[in-house]
Amino acid sequence: MSDTSIINETAARAVSARASDYFALLKPRVMSLVVFTGLVGMAVAPGDLHPVLGFTALLCIAIGAGASGAINMWYDADIDEVMERTKNRPIPAGKIGAGEALGIGVSLSVASVLLMGLAVNYVAAALLAITIGFYVFIYTMWLKRRTPQNIVIGGASGAFPPMIGWAAVTGDVSVESLVLFAIIFMWTPPHFWALSLWRDIDYANAGVPMLPVVAGREATRRQVVIYSVLLFPIAVMPYFLGYAGIFYGIGSVILGAIFLFGALKVWRKKDEKSAKQLFAYSILYLFLIFAILLGESIFTGVF
């Protein structure tokens, strides 16, 4: 292989790695969940939206979520450097500068809201702006380092996407979209507290007052059960409100019962394995709940 080929191959690898760093800055796993729940909000909303506008709305939701993630990584770079789970993120790993990350986050935030307002509607744009602002200012800058309720209150930011998707189609906020919001809002605490039960030392070292660090593991397990119990009837509500079918009704009961069983197992066994299992299942649970809603909507639309 010639020297020129070697140089070109090395340069290509460097560019690829750089692109992956920027992509990681946007928290793609979180973004994928946000886009999916936003899509479901659009699918179950009454009315029609032109496919181009629908794609634009989802793009704006994705960009807004990524922008929030970039700003979060900028602000939490000191914490991320200490925590085992986050120490390899682009900023603490020295792959992207903090100032550059902030600039990307702010630019994408403004662009996503403006595009949503101009191309889709102002209600969806306002909700997107609230989502970004809530995640950045309320959760990241205010709650995360100050209170063990950071996940409870701050979790609202992750619950907005289906409301945004609904508003993109209807131009308003309704009880139905608020229920979709409530499902994610109630799901968030047991999801993250299950994680923190076996990552509590990591959070303690970083000075983040997650519930197990402040109140102890026993109190956290009790709260996991309480929120899992509250989640169960809320997740079934789309069926009783008439915008989900019998398949969703049955599915939400079964999935919710498994979730509750997992939470009770965490409380009863008090071991790391149960917490890890509930954390893993909680991700699957939320995906399946919204996937059933989406599937029913598609099936209804076709037949």
From TrEMBL:
It is a multi-pass membrane protein. It is found in: Cell membrane. Pathway: Porphyrin-containing compound metabolism; heme O biosynthesis; heme O from protoheme: step 1/1. The chain crosses the membrane at residues 30-47, 53-75, 96-116, 122-143, 150-169, 175-195, 224-241, 247-266, 278-299. It comes from the Bacteria. Its EC number is 2.5.1.141. The keyword Transferase applies. It holds the Pfam family UbiA. The keyword Cell membrane applies. Keywords: Cell membrane, Heme biosynthesis, Membrane, Transferase, Transmembrane, Transmembrane helix. It is an enzyme of class 2 (transferase). It catalyses: heme b + (2E,6E)-farnesyl diphosphate + H2O = Fe(II)-heme o + diphosphate. Carbon 2 of the heme B porphyrin ring is defined according to the Fischer nomenclature. Belongs to the UbiA prenyltransferase family. Protoheme IX farnesyltransferase subfamily. NCBIfam families: cyoE_ctaB (TIGR01473), PRK04375.1-2 (NF003349). PANTHER family: 4-HYDROXYBENZOATE SOLANESYLTRANSFERASE (PTHR43448:SF7), PROTOHEME IX FARNESYLTRANSFERASE, MITOCHONDRIAL (PTHR43448). Converts heme B (protoheme IX) to heme O by substitution of the vinyl group on carbon 2 of heme B porphyrin ring with a hydroxyethyl farnesyl side group. This is Protoheme IX farnesyltransferase. It comes from Sneathiella chinensis. The lineage of its organism: Bacteria, Pseudomonadati, Pseudomonadota, Alphaproteobacteria, Sneathiellales.
